[in-house]
Amino acid sequence: MQSWIHVIEWRANVRPDLTALVDDRGAAYTYAQLRAAMYLQVRDGHVTRIEEYLDSAKRSSIRAAREALSG
User: Fold this and answer.
1) Per-residue pLDDT of the chain (71 residues; tens, 9 = 90+)
2) 57 phi and psi, to 5 degrees?
3) CB atoms < 10 A from the CB of 50, how many?
4) Which 3 state secondary structure label does DSSP give 46?
5) pTM to 2 decimal places
6) Which among 10, 41, 47, 61 has most CB atoms closer than 10 A?
7) By C-alpha distance, which of 55, 48, 71, 42 is closest to 9?
């Protein structure tokens, strides 16, 4: 059995552009964007990255997804 984190990682690697989540206001996120958001945290109202969990092979795809989220 896989955890949701493993499923999101797998789907982001296999189908990164596929829509993963749509909320009630119509905001949609791809698996790549959802994976990027998993490595963010909020402290004292500020969003910061959690880089220590990333290996160098994944940083570029996560960085691209994070930039896509920011507009």
Assistant:
1) 677 778 888 998 999 999 988 888 888 889 988 888 777 767 777 766 665 445 555 666 667 777 777 76
2) -70, -25
3) 10
4) strand
5) 0.55
6) 61
7) 55
